[in-house]
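Re: weekly structure request thread

Next one in the queue (1273 aa):
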Amino acid sequence: MPPRADDSQPGPFADMEGLMKQAPRYTILPTPLPEDARGSAANDFLYPDSPTQDQLAVIEVCLNELLDVPRAKRMFDDLRVKRAGDPLLEPRLYNAMMRGYFDMAEKDVENWEGWVQDAVDVFNTMQSAVEAIRPTAGSYAILFSAWTRFHERLSLRPVDAPRLHLPEPEKLVGLLDEQGISAVDIITDPSIQSPGEAARITDAILTPAVAQNRERLIAELREAQAIAKYSDPFADVPEAMPVLRRKEPQVAVGEVSPTTDDAMEVPFSLDLLRRHLARVKMARQVLPDDVAVRQKVLEDSAIDVARERMVQQVKMLEELGIKDPALRRHGLQLWMWEWHTKLQERLEAEVNALLIEEQAIKEKRGPSTREQQFLGPFLQLLEPETMSLITILELMRLSGSGGVSDGMKMARALLSVGTAIEMEYHARMRKKNNISVPMHPLQPGQLAHYSGQGYEDLYARRIAARKYMEDNEAWSADWSQTLKVRIASFIVDSLIDVATVTRSGIDKETKQLVEEVQPAFFHTYEYVHGHKLGVIKLNSAVAERLATDDVRDTVTPRSLPMLVRPKPWLDYDNGAYLNIKSEWSVMRFKESQEQEVHIREAARQGKIELVFAALDVLGSTPWVVNRAVFDVVLKVWNSGKRFAKIPPAVFEMPEPEKPLDWASNPKSRNVHMIRVKAYHHARGNNHSDRCSVNYKMEIARTFISDVFYLPHNIDFRGRAYPIPPHLSHIGDDLSRGLMKFADAKPLGARGLRWLKIHLANLYGYDKADFDGRVVWTEENLANIVDSAEKPLEGEGWWTKADDPWQCLATCMELNNALKSPDPLTYECSLPVHQDGTCNGLQHYAALGGDEKGARQVNLDVTDRPSDVYTYVANMVEELLEKEKDTDKYAAMLVGKIARKIVKQTVMTTVYGVTFIGAREQIEKQLRDRSVVPEEEAWGASAYLAKKVLAAIGDLFSGATDIQTWLNMCARLVTRSIPPARVEEASKEYVDRKGNKKATSRTKKEQMTSMIWTSPMNLPIVQPYRKVKRKQIMTAIQSVFISDPNSPAEVNSMKQASAFPPNFIHSLDASHMMKTALRCRDEDITFASVHDSYWTHACDIDRMSAIIRDTFVELHNGEILQRLHDEFMYRYKDYKVPLSTVRSSNIIEKLKAMGVKPPAIVGLLEQIEGTAAKEESEDEAIEAAEPNVDALDDEFSERMNEADDLDAYLQSEEGAQALEDAFELSGETKQKRSRYGGVSPHKIHINVTDLIPPVPKKGDFDVNTTKQSLYFFS
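Done, posted below.
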């Protein structure tokens, strides 16, 4: 008897093709409304505004330590009325309010009855569900806890006192049993503070449960009591005796040191460790994995560790007796400690003064005061000491960011500091819960990711884990951008005022040593890309130290790799780090609330389980520092010399000398200024690069003996990135050379061959076939051995490689393998890469079935790899050769066009790079390679960009049609208006002052973003909207920030130009994720850098087959037709104003693309064309045609009677009526009433009637790619 379908377990790949062909799962949500529109229930639900966020943040602050519960109650009651149904008003908020009321009942003895009743009223509201909120286990835990605290007091109240309706345990037990709430969840809720309280609540539940025969509750509580009887297995294990040192006595001046007391103390580092381990011991019962606890401590105690290190640095100098100010003043940690102590004192005084001032304002203005504007409560959430350290660490971390040398943009600095303070506060709140989430790696024999059952299992496990986390986590509110900036400005202003450094130098006249106290930070303005921006700059002495000193104290653990496997992604904002929820989301939002809402809803509906699973796979790859390479890098670093892409400690390029004719020759002066500007730019880059390498070295040193992991998240297109920014495999050549897999595997014959090919690729010998690369490596074995054994003392062959540090790592690994007794059994842990060939064009060629393009990018079967970059470089050289005698730039560049000069431009051409972008790319390459003099770089790059783009010509013709189609679809969609807003769009535009404008609201209503669904069911929302910034007055300067909660109209031009590249990126991201999941199913270690996939050398053949299978399966799914179908479904009934379409000649282009416009468009074109001819005869027409006004009036009346104007105009009757309105006797028609008296802004067309058909596909069969050796190589 054959097995039933539901009994058979699919193999790893059984259902993948079926999964690709099943109907996509769209996430469709309402389009955001314009800023001045009245909110709808749906929009208010999805897009909460910033004032509401601020109110919730104030409520949280007021509940904290019972700071101002009456104020919290007023705001809570106000929100319940004004924002009923808002998703921000969640059950945990109601629970927090109940808990606050009960706590106030204990604190406010005179009014305790009122507070108890307020809490009971909140519970009754939840129980009745009138506000769409239902009680949770936490709600019942609070009520049972309140009953144990207040039932005796209630029994002592006078008989005639008003009754308090605090529910009895008997009633509560019945309610929670009916609602299916677990009794165990109640007694383990974080609101239960002590074992004694938990025991009392257990009895309070168990007694009525037995009396009422509640079997489920009885069984749960009996099991919980049995578990609770087990003792801590570590309780009777004695502690190890610590190593002690003699304690230095604290002797006051003039006192005699005691000699009889041999006092001992724990040395600093061990003492700090023991204090951390004490927390480990406390957490063992909840987190049994010691390494997991270590990771949690690492995350939790970032500020504590930084403070301890700085304190120890100061103590060490004092103990060594170093009193010389010259020796004490230059250490970075010492400076930071001095700033910290000063800022801490300043903040204590400033916060106290602010609280007094705000209290005076409240007393003066009374209840009408806008309380959410006060900062005092927020500045009390953390100690001044903590806020001081956070601010200093953040500013040091941001130095050199955003294109500002030795500084940072003011707005970015304030937002970063404000966010860091918010995250520290939220992390502290979550520490109280001490919750661990079990890891669920896929084990052999379990369901594969791509089977239907496997997918459902993923969803079920994630939902269960997410609910567990949410149920055990206290409520907290996010802070708005404005609030963060205001808080940070208060602190940063104080830091700029108190932080100083003492600098010394030789006076040129007196030759004496002089000293000066200077600000460590200062505020100024700079022009960045033509815009005047406020910036915070570091004193040059601080900047220099940042490039040379130990910078571990400026890197928080939230920027570091993890010591344990990252927490699985449980929700869009819950995963990766163990105890940091809000700082990292699964998607990196680009100030787009719309992106966040879509990813949140997709996660809630279980549509992106494979995205979560793929990120978990990427994050679970274990890494270690390559110690052999690290030792070489350390020697180079300490030498201070420029070597193998490591910048020198002292910039060695001399500053350009002023020419003799500088004053008299304008051209010479201009050339000199260009060279000086380039010199300072290069010097600044050298400093930034030095700081970057310093970060990498310190992090590598920190993890030198650890296995670590890199948690990942995605950008809005689905591309995955490691969250740690400094040391990861997605970084530069040095970062990659410093890392290798923690697990090693035997090479085998094929692995040894791939290791040799990998070395040739890294060196730059990657155009030959595979056999040729193996031969090349074997011919260079002497150089390889010399490089591996004498990296700095030998010939330095490895330093000439394209990627020198990865080349050195591979030389060492290959040398170790060849010197081992059996190279085939050598355990190799070095990642070996498989890279796509211009991956964007590979996807275009597959989408369009382009045979020519497929051959150029190795989709087709070839004997040798094709190299499109070299092909274009050679074409450009031919063009230069022809013009070298007539053009100075051709003569300057001929013979110097390497493939790397044109590579980026060729690569980005398929992504729609403009001439300006191409010129900037080429200019950078010319400058980096010193191909032309500095002053000629701009002109030469402009000339060369034209030649490169011309040489590309028809090379990518197969991709052009698809790009044009994608661009046109985006232009139409982003100019469309949701059906519910069409009537508003037709009205006159009235500004904020009430003045009517001559135009309609059409442009104001164009809020539709380009949204599509990737093959991984990820909703992708383009964030490009018109810039609308909000001005915030701070003590330092007026700061302009964008408010993501106030969306502006879309930037249609940017949306259209960005859609083709973003769509292709979403495909390569989907390809990578599918490959990652398949590799996990096959037990293959996997890492990726976008279109570069890494694994062990012995597994390259298996991974290569998977890469090809997933690519073919992806493109066999008719991607473009699916995208077309999604547009027709997602934007059904969306309207495009006729005026918008006609004004940009879109109709003519649509006709050329195969669109048959609605009849109304053709009729209006005909009328408009004829009327334009006769525009000069208006007066004669009016005299000769007395029936025009009557016709206009009749037509207008019929249009006003129509229920649906657009449907009427596009119907046969409407079209005829419009034509009748223009039927004029004689030989002329009326221009005055071109559209029959109706504004073109009031005529709308269904956008789905204009979306062009998918471009015709070519003859290339993508299945051929499975046989291509060089597709990824």
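Residues 626-707 form one domain. The mean pLDDT is 77.
Next request, please.
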